[in-house]
């Protein structure tokens, strides 16, 4: 979960606990009911070019037009203050949410805000294996759901509103993800696509609603990142069954997706790019390693922690050094391994002024 990494300025002392709870990160994986695959649609044009560099080359992306959310504050406030009398059934609620909304964006936004603000993740059902919150109606009536419940409810409300929305199924790097995975596992997640002004956008209401903490409790914690997420960012964590829903000019293959480093929203919010090690699994015969990361936004700060993969105990201190050249910040992360073995390197990020830092990315390192 992204905010498992938000800790005090004593983050180095508490960081080892994240090794134990890292398996619970995000509401990334959940049981799925069968949902029909979406149809092939054009994702639009006149948008900003994006690219992901990997060790196998460069993957080019369809152009993406940023969504300006600054104009949506009134819609957000309205959707967060729906009286209970107007939320007794899905149709009544949807029509109430649409009253002040004029554009397709505002209508989608109102639905998005209500769902992420009112539906909790069904941790009891998920961890007990007795999930009953697959469908939209159950998620709405009980106000809890797993990913398919979130996505199906969103689509039902979008249909009522006369909006084009598709449920996407595929694999997400979450609860069951491991760098020892070599082939793409079966479906474990559902998210959505929205058609706004003739262009398709991607969103994940489950991940936008909050996270599950180390005690297996749902923590409501809204994450803006997952509303109309840049496809070049979402492909790091979400791999749809239908490659068309990557919304990429040249879709990423499953092998690249599995290998590419696991990231969290702060990685993209701070304009990071992975300069030296784009893949998350590193094998080396050397006892030291340097990883370089570029930050496009000034004033960033990085912390790191190295832990034994088998028991989560701290293995060594990590030295993070910053270099600034022509307003471009490059971070060098130096790791000295105590010997052969398997390690997890966690990298946390924030600003110089911050006392709390969020998880940005992780590496699995095997020293032979």
Description of the structure:
- The chain is an alpha+beta fold and 368 residues long.
- It folds into two domains: 15-22 and 269-367, Immunoglobulins (Immunoglobulin-like), CATH 2.60.40; 31-260, Roll (C8orf32 fold), CATH 3.10.620.
- The protein has helices at residues 11-14, 17-21, 73-79, 90-98, 104-118, 123-128, 136-142, 147-160, 205-209, 231-234, 254-259, 265-269, and strands at 51-54, 57-60, 120-121, 144-145, 165-172, 189-196, 199-203, 210-212, 218-220, 238-240, 262-263, 272-274, 281-284, 288-295, 300-308, 314-316, 318-325, 328-336, 341-351, 358-367.
- The strands form six sheets. Strands 11, 13, 15, 16, 19 and 20 form a six-stranded mixed beta sheet that branches. It has a four-stranded antiparallel beta sheet with strand order 7-6-5-10.
- Strand 8 (210-212) and strand 9 form a beta hairpin.
- Helix 4 packs across helix 8, helix 5 runs antiparallel to helix 8 and helix 7 (136-142) packs across helix 8.
């Amino acid at each position: 979960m992204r905010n498992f990494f938000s800790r005090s300025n004593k983050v180095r002392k508490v960081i080892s606990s994240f090794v134990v709870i890292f398996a619970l990160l995000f509401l990334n994986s959940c049981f799925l009911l069968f949902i029909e695959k979406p149809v092939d649609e054009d994702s639009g044009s006149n948008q900003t070019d994006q690219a992901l560099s990997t060790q196998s080359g460069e993957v080019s992306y369809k152009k993406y037009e940023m969504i300006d959310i600054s104009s949506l504050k009134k819609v957000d406030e309205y959707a967060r203050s729906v009286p209970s009398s107007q939320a007794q059934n899905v149709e009544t609620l949807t029509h109430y949410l649409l009253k002040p909304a004029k554009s397709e964006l505002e209508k989608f936004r109102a639905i998005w805000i209500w769902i992420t603000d009112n539906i909790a993740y069904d941790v009891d059902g998920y961890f007990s294996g007795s999930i009953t919150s697959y469908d939209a109606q159950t998620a709405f009536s009980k106000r809890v759901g797993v990913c398919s419940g979130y996505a199906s409810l969103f689509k039902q409300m979008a249909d009522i509103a006369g909006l084009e929305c598709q449920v996407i199924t595929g694999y997400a790097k979450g609860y069951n993800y491991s760098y020892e995975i070599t082939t793409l596992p079966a479906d474990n997640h559902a998210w959505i696509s929205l058609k706004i002004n003739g262009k398709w956008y991607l969103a994940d209401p489950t991940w936008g609603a909050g996270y599950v903490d180390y005690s297996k409790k749902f923590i409501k914690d809204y994450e803006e990142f997952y509303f109309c997420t840049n496809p070049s960012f979402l492909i790091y964590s979400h791999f749809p069954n239908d490659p068309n829903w990557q919304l990429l000019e040249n879709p990423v293959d499953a092998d690249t997706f599995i290998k590419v480093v696991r990231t969290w929203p702060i990685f993209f919010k701070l304009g990071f790019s992975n300069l030296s090690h784009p893949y998350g699994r590193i094998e080396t015969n050397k006892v030291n390693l340097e990883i370089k990361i570029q930050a496009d936004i000034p004033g960033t700060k990085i912390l790191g922690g190295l832990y034994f993969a088998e028991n989560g105990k701290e293995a060594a201190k990590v030295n993070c050094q910053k270099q600034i050249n022509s307003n471009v910040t490059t971070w060098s992360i130096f790791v000295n391994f105590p010997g052969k073995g398997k390690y997890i390197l966690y990298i946390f990020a924030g600003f110089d002024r911050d006392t709390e830092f969020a998880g940005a990315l992780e590496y699995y390192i095997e020293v032979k």
